[in-house]
Amino acid sequence: MADARATKSELLDVLSEVKTRVQDKLGIVDFPMPQFILIGSQSVGKSRLVESFAGEQFNFISGTLGSRRPTVLEFRNVASVVESKWYILDKETNQWQHRPTMQVMEIVGQAHSSLGNSVSTEAIHVRVESNKCVDMQIVDLPGYRGFARDEAGRNLCQQIESLNSSFLLDPRNVILCVEEAGDAANLSSLRRCSECDPDFKRTILIRNKLDKYYGDLTSDNSNKWLEGFGDLPK
Fold first, then answer.
1. I want to staple 159 with a disulfide (CB 3.0 to 4.6 A). Which of 33, 119, 120, 165 is the partner?
2. Where would I find the Dynamin-type G domain in this sequence (predicted)?
């Protein structure tokens, strides 16, 4: 079992390196390889989902700023690691650099905040090695914004829509769509998914914060709430 797990991680590492090198040479984001992409409105709980994959709590972005570029997160399950190890990909050397966790948080936060009211297709890459995380890679995309009070904010909303759509339209991408539990008619991120994936063949809906909305949520009816009581697509 240990040998199989090691082989799986090594294969993921090779695929990751090939993908990163091709993206760096050709300047493209949508490399032709299946991947998980994570979408949802701002503050919907995407970060908590990512933390569950990582097996620990962290925070890249503070306050209400939100992300401004794709964040590629590579999780590697390493049974021998006692404490998690965090790495950041150096774009100049194309090498992974081991850094203290808080420093990785600061670097990623700066990569987003430095863009201000603009969006970039250039991703920032983070790797986590831990005995608690899963073996997978996801691309965390900027959260959708529902309101903008000025022209700069409206332009930012449009840029985020455009960036995320480029990932949604790629048939190779598996979509992890995070929505707060509530009236199915208000699932705006799922609506965007339906426009690009009308049969939901590659969309996984993740309903979040059930306890926030439903005072009568119990262990007996939680699955019915998740299923939307018939309102959601099968």
1. 119
2. 30-234
